[in-house]
Amino acid sequence: MLRRLGSGALAIFGVTVLVFAFLHLVPGDPIDHLAGGEATPEQRMKLEHCLGLDESAVTQLTTFLGHVADGTLGHQCPDPEHKPSVAARISSVMPHTIALAIAGMLVAIVLALPLGVLAAVRRGTWIDTVATVTALAGIAVPMMLFASLLVLVFFAELGWFPGPTETGPAALVLPALAVGTHLMAMLSRMTRSSMIAVLGEDYVRTARAKGLPESRVLFHHALRNALLPVLTVAGMQFGSLLTGAIIVEKVFARPGLGTTLLEAISERDYPVVQGTVFVIAVIYVVVNTAVDLLYGLVDPRIRVA
Amino acid sequence: MSAKVGGVMLAVFVIFGVVGPWLAPFDPAQIDLAHRFLPASTMHWLGTDSNGIDTCSQLLWGAREALIISVSVVAISATIGLAIGTLAGWYRGVVDELAMRVVDILMAFPGILLNIAIVATVRRPGIGVIIFALCANGWVGYARVARGQVLALRERDFISASVALGASGPRVMVRHLLPNLVGPALVPITFGFGAVIAIEASLSFLGLGPQVDYTWGAMLAQGTAFLWKTGFRTYVLVPGLAIAWVMVAVNLLGDGLDPHRRGTL
Question: Residue B121 is nearest to which of A22, A147, A250, comparing CB atoms?
Answer without folding.
Answer: A22
